Amino acid sequence: MIFNKDGNITIITQEKASVKTLVNNIEQVYEKYKNDHIIVRLSSLDTISLEDIIEFLRVSNTHRGDKKSFVVVSDKVDLDIMPDEICIVPTMHEAYDIIEMEDIERDLGF
Fold first, then answer.
1. What is the spatial distance between Cα 65 and Cα 78, in angstroms, rounded to a whole number?
2. CATH class for domain 2-107?
């Protein structure tokens, strides 16, 4: 697991750990990054199932409840079967766009 900071955004890159292990690791260090927007890059996995994405639901809901963005980046998911409760995009550029749009929505009170 690699952590990079870009302003108020923390980018977590998954390397070889399973999704379940990655989520557990994020939850263990969550206090350190809870005030940042979080992008999780799942670039090293060949396929990502619905069950894998659901693993992120608890931490995503907690983070979004604190008015911060939580975005998963992967181009290996079937977006049609993914839950609406979690934000999944295929590219890093789109992840930054989502964070920017959600910041604007929060500023406007949506």
1. 25
2. alpha beta
